[in-house]
Amino acid sequence: MHRNWYRLDTAALIFPAIARLDWCNAFRVSATLDEDIDPVLLQQATDSLRRRFPSFFVTLHQGFFWCYLEESDRQVRVREDYAYPLTFMSSRELKQNCMRVLYYRNRIAVEFFHSLTDGRGGCVFLCSLTARYLELKYGIRIPREGMVRDPESPPPPEELEDSFFRNAAATAAGRKEEASFRLHGTKEAEGFKHLTTGVVETAALLDAAHAYGVSVTALLAGVMAKSIMEMQALERQGRRLRPVKITLPVDLRRLYGSETLRNFSLVLNVGADPRYGDYSLEELCRVIWHQIGAGATRQNMAGMIAANVQPQQSILLRLAPAFIKHAVMDLVYRNSGESGGSLNISNLGSVRLPEPMQAHVQRMEFIIGPQRSYPNNCSVLSCGGRTYINMIRNIRESELERRFFSKLVEMGIAVEIESNRRTLSSAVPQEHGRNTAGQSKPGEGGCSEA
Question: Would the pTM of this model clear 0.85, i.e. be above it?
Answer without folding.
Answer: yes
